[in-house]
């Protein structure tokens, strides 16, 4: 039997080695490249809710899902922690591809300055709505004597008058100064003693005053419902709209209608 030459055996081993190497390459390529790619090719990743997270927390969450982010905008919101996530796109629970970029709006750490609109002459409610809608905080309403009832007469900030058109920080606290509807007119308190409650009520309203607290005195001996005392006394000057307290004879619980 003829024997193969040494050179022929070498060729066989070389070819065999090439085949084995090619087989291993194909094996690893199939299981570690092609198969994972085809498995994840159509797989979607659920976008997490990032609102309120810091940027570092956001990065950690997105890294764990093989997602990235980009800050696309910023906004100032009074009361919310600066440099946290305000909104995102795509929204939470959306399905996205592997490696998708999430666009973020963050809370700015600097309040922008905005112009104070002219609300003088507006009703209290209308002024509150307008000022609140552009980012100011209405923390108090101060009433002053003026016939323009519930009408804004001026604005205050930190106890000082705030000029319309001035520029202050968004989120600043503003006090509305509003007319009480009575003005500075004064009237003399009429004498109510000896009158029935009904007559006293008519007289006091006709004097642009109001009945205040109603107390009772069962020791006067006068008919039930008669005014036996009043405070302030008759003749005292009060501002229109002020109240006069009265004491009626009899016990509480009587029908005053």
Write the layout of secondary structure elements.
Blueprint: H1 6-40, E1 45-46, H2 55-63, E2 68-75, E3 85-89, E4 95-96, E5 101-107, E6 113-115, H3 124-133, E7 137-144, E8 152-157, E9 160-162, E10 167-169, E11 173-179, E12 186-188, H4 197-206, E13 210-217, E14 227-231, E15 237-239, E16 243-249
Parallel strand pairs: 2-5, 7-11, 13-16
Antiparallel strand pairs: 1-4, 3-5, 6-10, 8-9, 8-11, 12-15, 14-16
Transmembrane segments: 12-37
Pfam family, one: PASTA
Domain PASTA: 41-108, 110-180, 183-250
Give structural notes:
With 257 residues, the chain is of the alpha+beta class. The chain has 3 domains: 45-107, Trypsin Inhibitor V, Chain A (2-Layer Sandwich); 113-179, Trypsin Inhibitor V, Chain A (2-Layer Sandwich), CATH 3.30.10.20; 186-249, Trypsin Inhibitor V, Chain A, CATH 3.30.10.20. The chain is 25% helix and 31% strand. The chain contains 4 helices and 16 strands. The strands form 6 sheets. Strands 7-11-8-9 form a 4-stranded mixed beta sheet, with helices on one face. Strands 2-5-3 form a 3-stranded mixed beta sheet, covered by helices on one side. Strands 13-16-14 form a 3-stranded mixed beta sheet, covered by helices on one side. A hairpin with a 2-residue loop joins strand 8 and strand 9. The longest helix has 35 residues, at 6-40. It is elongated and about 140 Å long.
